[in-house]
Amino acid sequence: MGYVGYEHRTSVPACDAQRPHLLKGRCVALGSAERAVVVDVGPWPLEERNYGMTWPASERYRLEAAPAGLALVQDLLNTLAAGKPREPDLLGDLTTAKNWIGEDLSTWARERDRPEPQVEINEHDLDELRVLRGELQDALRTPDRRGAEPALADLSALYSASAGLRMNRDSRVSIEPRGTGWRYIACLVLMEALEAQQTNVWNRLKICRNPRCSVAFFDRSRNNSGVWHSTRVCGNIENLRAHRARARARASD
Ligand SMILES: [Zn+2]
User: Fold this and answer.
1) How many A from CA of 213 to the centre of ligand 1?
2) What Gene3D superfamilies does the annotation carry (predicted)?
3) Rounded to the nearest whole angstrom, what is the distance from the C-alpha of residue 78 to the centroid of ligand 1?
């Protein structure tokens, strides 16, 4: 199996664009005026991608899901209101949030081959989840997460969660999330972040640099240099803005 990726050139529904039959360099008709052009971005083999999984928050923004359970963290970040026209905040009210959590936990359980967790949330949990989302977003915005030694202030705990360790009869050790309500979700998020750090993909989960967008995307570029969730959508807007600012500066000289 070769390494392939794809790039949205026009409006392509995520469910269509993620079909593995898309091959490098091929334009695929997906319906009225929609097409996807597949480009080589590696290094994730097709079979490791999240095909057929449902991550409702990220799919609203037509984002390709991060690998395995890391997509849960991405989906929490993408519950925010973004896009054009503006999509609603999925943590905006209790009913919407419960639906989102139900769908995400079901996808996470399938992805991780675990029993589906049942998590009840109330208004207080919803507040805490919004805080968690905001702080996680700020943490991922740190300019160079691979780089220099962190400042002392950065070493204090942002979040802590309790989890259990369990060894199965086949000697495999797994982490068991603990807690109820928002604490359980926070525990899952920290578990997935830990795993992503151990497999060296955590620093590919990024927040789009366009402040009006701010969706979370998984950077599959070869050298992990992406800053926009879509160069075409957000990169161009930003380049145009910079170009106009330069033109204005020249005109006023
Ligand atoms: Zn963006």
Assistant:
1) 5
2) Jann2411-like domain (1.10.3300.10)
3) 11
For ligand 1, the distance from its centroid to the CA atom of residue 1, given in whole angstroms, is 30
Q: Which of 164, 172, 90, 182 is nearest to 127 (CA)?
A: 182
Q: What is the pLDDT of residues 213-231, one digit of tens each?
A: 999 999 999 999 999 999 8
Give the other-Cβ count within 10 Å of 54's Cβ. Answer: 17
The CA 173 to ligand 1 mean position distance, Å, reads 38
User: ipTM greater than 0.90, yes or no?
Assistant: yes
Q: What is the DSSP string of 5-26?
A: --EESS---HHHHT-TT--TT-
* Separation between Cα atoms, residue 215 and residue 79, nearest integer Å: 9
Paired with 176 in beta bridges are: 164
Contact 193, 168 (CB under 8 A): no
> For the segment 59-114, what is each residue's pLDDT rounded down to a tens digit?
999 999 999 999 999 999 999 999 989 999 999 999 999 999 999 999 999 999 99
* Domains, the chain, ordered by start: 1-49 (no CATH), 63-144+158-252 (1.10.3300)
229 CA from centroid of ligand 1 (Å) = 4
- How many angstroms separate the CA atoms of 93 and 171, rounded? 43
Distance (angstroms) between ligand 1 centre and the Cα of 52 equals 23
pLDDT band at 150 (very low <50, low <70, confident <90, very high): low
